[in-house]
Design a protein that fits this description.
248 residues; transmembrane; transmembrane helix; cell projection; cell membrane; 5-stranded mixed sheet; 60s Ribosomal Protein L30, Chain: A; disordered C terminus
């Protein structure tokens, strides 16, 4: 009886050893199969990690972290906008409704309000919205400051939205500014102001004269933003109204 027990016990041991061997072989084949389907770059990264080496491209990524982002932005900046580019952006606008002038320091764009805004409102007309957006796209991506000033005629306004022409002129300038920012300009580039019926360019005693005074003027500084303190004429405000909270 003891011989049978010893033989039975001895005879079962090989099964356990065989099972262990099969398990090891299965794991080995599984690892080999996984290695065969892994991308060579990932495989090399795994090997390097096991050897304590940095992953491939780690040094490049570290260099990217220390690359000054300002330099990259400067390289992507478009050159200062030209009068021709602005005229192309506004080519579908009636020439009587827009005026573009250029000096050595800035480009001045005058938008006569009747074509861009409803009377007594600061909402852009649907008919000219696309042209204003094209103008914003043309100005975007450039290292230039933009100063936008709204003007009105002398006819008084008093409603729940605009208690006076001051609010109306500032709101129209802000609407143009927000349109430009939506098209890619940064808020730090843009300054707005409302001057109500000040600085008229025509007499206010005729409908035509008042229509000329209802306008939004955009000054585009031709010098880079970093070096331009202010190239716009005296009396036109500078600074960032978005940070100062002056946008209505």
């Amino acid at each position: 009886m003891s011989d049978i027990d010893e033989g039975g016990a001895h005879g079962g041991a090989w099964k356990i050893a065989l099972a262990d061997l099969m398990t090891v072989l299965m794991v080995l084949f599984l690892v080999l199969w996984l290695i065969s389907i892994v991308d060579p770059k990932d495989r090399q990264a795994f090997v390097n990690a096991m050897q304590g080496q940095p992953p491939i491209g780690a040094e490049i990524e570290d260099e990217k972290l220390f690359t000054p982002q300002v330099d990259l932005i400067d390289l992507q900046m478009k050159p200062p906008v030209s009068r021709e580019e602005l005229q192309k952006a506004l080519q579908e606008v009636n020439p009587k409704d827009v005026q573009i002038e250029e000096t050595d320091d800035y480009v001045k764009i005058t938008l006569f309000s009747d074509s861009f805004f409803e009377s007594g409102r600061a909402t852009i007309n649907d008919a000219t919205r696309e042209q204003l957006e094209k103008l914003g796209e043309t100005l975007a991506g450039r290292d230039q400051t933009i100063t936008i000033t709204g003007y009105t005629d002398t006819l008084p306004i008093n409603n729940l939205i605009f208690p006076s022409n001051w609010e109306l002129s500032a709101a129209r300038a802000a609407t143009v500014a927000r349109t430009f920012i939506d098209m890619g300009l940064t808020a730090s580039q843009v300054t707005i102001a409302g001057k109500a019926d000040n600085d008229p360019v025509a007499e206010n005693d005729t409908p035509y004269g008042r229509s000329l005074n209802r306008r939004v003027i955009i000054y585009v500084d031709k010098r880079p933003e970093k070096s331009a303190n202010s190239a716009v004429p005296n009396g036109v405000p500078t600074g960032n109204p978005f940070k100062a909270g002056r946008v209505p």
